[in-house]
């Protein structure tokens, strides 16, 4: 675990369960209107992390949190509504905006967006950016970067939790 001067928090996990646990810790810190934007190649662990985030938001059954790429958004009931977007098939922010994404991003729940780079301009200014990296067959690295004051607080809290574990 390391925190760089630009407040990016980097965490390496050694198995999928650790990634779910990391996501759960992040999910517990999220409130309505918070958005997590994930980028990283196929198999980097984005959906695995999102399962954990969903659990942290109170979703009971994370096995329902999957990435069927032809479904753009799936909603899960938790402590807060949890909206899981997969932008894999989208080609630009407009394609998300016309679907009313702002209502979700500014709304009653927590949003996680996979393939966020495809819809960058549709995302809120203050969000938790996550870059997932495939280190080797078992290890994945997750870089959490803030883009505003709200996300900076969330990431700082996540970092403190992990460092005292
Ligand atoms: P993405 O959504 O980025 O395409 P997934 O989370 O769907 O990635 O898939 C990650 C794959 O890598 C899963 O098959 C998972 O079992 C495997 N894996 C191996 N090690 C890890 C780890 N440390 N964290 C997350 N996934 C891992
Ligand atoms: Mg995925």
3D architecture notes:
- With about 160 residues, the protein is of the alpha/beta class.
- It has one domain: P-loop containing nucleotide triphosphate hydrolases (Rossmann fold), CATH 3.40.50.
- The protein is built from 5 helices and 8 strands; from the N terminus they run E-E-H-E-H-E-E-H-H-E-E-E-H.
- It has helices at about 15-30, 45-55, 95, 100-105, 150-165; strands spanning about 1-5, 10-15, 35-40, 75, 80-85, 110-115, 130-135, 140-145.
- It has an 8-stranded mixed β-sheet.
- Helix 1 crosses helix 2.
- The chain is globular, with a radius of gyration of 14 Å.
- The N and C termini lie close together (about 10 Å).
- Bound molecules: adenosine-5'-diphosphate and magnesium ion.
- Magnesium ion binds near residues 67 and 114.
- Magnesium ion binds near residues 46, 47, 67 and 114.
Proportion of β residues? Answer: 15-25%
Number of helices: 5
Give the terminus-to-terminus CA distance: 11 Å
Report the structural category: alpha/beta
Query: Could you name the CATH topology?
Result: Rossmann fold
- Strand arrangement in the largest pleated sheet: 1-2-8-7-3-6-5-4
Biggest β-sheet, characterized?
8 strands, mixed
Work out the radius of gyration. 14 Å
Structural domain count: 1
How much helix is in the residues? Answer: 25-40%
Kindly state the number of beta strands. Answer: 8
The chain-level mean pLDDT equals 93
CATH class: Alpha Beta
Topology:
Blueprint: E1 2-3, E2 9-13, H1 16-28, E3 35-39, H2 46-56, E4 73-76, E5 82-86, H3 93-97, H4 101-105, E6 110-114, E7 128-134, E8 140-146, H5 149-163
Parallel strand pairs: 3-6, 3-7, 5-6
Antiparallel strand pairs: 1-2, 2-8, 4-5, 7-8
The chain binds adenosine-5'-diphosphate and magnesium ion.
């Amino acid at each position: 675990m390391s925190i760089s001067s630009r407040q990016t928090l980097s965490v390496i996990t050694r198995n999928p369960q650790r990634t779910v646990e990391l996501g759960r810790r992040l999910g517990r810190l999220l409130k309505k209107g918070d958005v997590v934007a994930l980028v990283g190649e196929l198999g980097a662990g984005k959906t695995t992390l999102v399962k954990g985030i969903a659990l942290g938001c109170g979703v009971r059954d994370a096995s329902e949190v999957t990435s069927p790429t032809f479904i753009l958004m799936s909603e899960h009931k938790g402590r807060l509504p949890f909206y899981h977007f997969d932008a894999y098939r989208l080609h630009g922010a407009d394609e998300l905006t016309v679907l009313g994404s702002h209502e979700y991003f500014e709304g009653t729940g927590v949003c996680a967006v996979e393939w966020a780079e495809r819809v960058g301009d549709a995302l809120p200014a203050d969000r938790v950016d996550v870059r997932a990296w495939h280190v080797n067959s078992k290890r994945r690295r997750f870089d959490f970067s803030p883009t505003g004051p709200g996300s900076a607080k969330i990431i700082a809290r996540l970092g403190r939790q992990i460092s005292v574990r």
